């Protein structure tokens, strides 16, 4: 893989004249985000909850959905909230359930499918089960837009379906009584990139507005903790109203009343009062997702909904254990793959499986192996029906969906995904052909050289790093897709200290000395090779920067972002490593 470091083109003085209220560095960072004047900058830096959110009734079919749900509430019809099993669908399901709970409507059930035994989205077995429970209405969350047959079956069995989703809609949509999805071709909603839980939140806003319920003023804002978790975990762009939802959602999360989240943060050793988007992305989201990956996602839903302190603590501790188990399972898979590959030449595509590997973690392991071996990876296991199921990840040189298509129409039971990631299934008898067929397809499809372009928005010196600068930069947050953390270039840094740390020595820490004798730490997660791959970490091996020596006294160039950490109550300004190269 070729890396291309670039320093962003300096804006002209004239281009920044309408941003003169801010420091020169912040002017540049705003400019690079398309912000050219102070009025827009102030809206960006200080989102207005009341002004920035669009009317939920602008969503196509929202009025129909609201009318049908209010009718069900009036007649006490049984409702199923059918949510996806990830850290978007689970909070979205909890948002609607929290609304029902608040208005004292109790004739509902939240249903989160089992990732290991049920397919994504609505499935016929579940629909038939609901019919036997006298269900009259199904509301989907973060799924349903492609469930044509399942919705048709529900109708046949006397149930109506309201789809709330945020995934790309097909040209024809299912024949549900309402399909609320901004990505519908005929939807004119001003913003298309809400999360699944974001759409669920819009539904609740519309229900609260239309239903004339006796709700406390501003009650719905207490749902924003769940919206923030989904918006950041599902990596939707933090633009338009998503920025507002995430901005205020983080504020709510820092003082959430949900006992489950309070306990989850406690067992994860997260300081709730200073929680950031990184804590959602790296700590909260993975722990919620661990429920579906390791057992059943309904446990994560129960965590978000419980009002019992003992139950909240028990679930939080179990999710913490499952998340730890999930990490260990991923490490075990990586270790097994590494051992298998050590005795042979590396193939163009890594295709390896084991019937005992957990299906829920194959995507995570594939991503890690792509980072290690810099080539596409296909991992498989076996499901309860005796079929081979797997996940794949690209290294950026190839479209994995095109690759699986080139294998031929008769090979897979099904497959799908996008350019960089996908999933597949096939009958057990074809498992031994999988690697051969994929390698054959690799010869046919187009490939391109992988060039990783990394743009630094400014050049800084290590002496520039202080609390004041960090707070200026962090005011541009929350960061994520659509508003990436600013990356800075540091030249000719002399390493003062270096170490690996964490489970199996996976993480890297460098320290640099400022002229005031203060050490600045730079952290790189998953940038070391675990100790079961290398004898011991040293500056020449044991890290992902194979052409760079990381020894005290060595000089390097560094790309990094700036962050505040709060470890055991101690606030620290540090760098987050993006890339390292020889000093030039």
UniProtKB/TrEMBL annotation:
Assigned keywords, A-Z: Exonuclease, Hydrolase, Nuclease
GO MF terms held by the record: 5'-3' exonuclease activity; nucleic acid binding
Residues making up the signal peptide according to the UniProt record: none
GO BP field: DNA recombination; DNA repair
Pfam family, one: DHHA1
Domain RecJ OB: 457-579
Keyword NADP attached: no
The UniProt record lists the keyword Hydrolase: yes
Record-annotated DHHA1 domain positions: 349-442
DDH domain residues: 78-230
Source organism superkingdom: Bacteria
Family as reported in the entry's similarity comment: Belongs to the RecJ family.
Record's protein name: Single-stranded-DNA-specific exonuclease RecJ
Biological source species: Candidatus Vogelbacteria bacterium RIFOXYB1_FULL_42_16
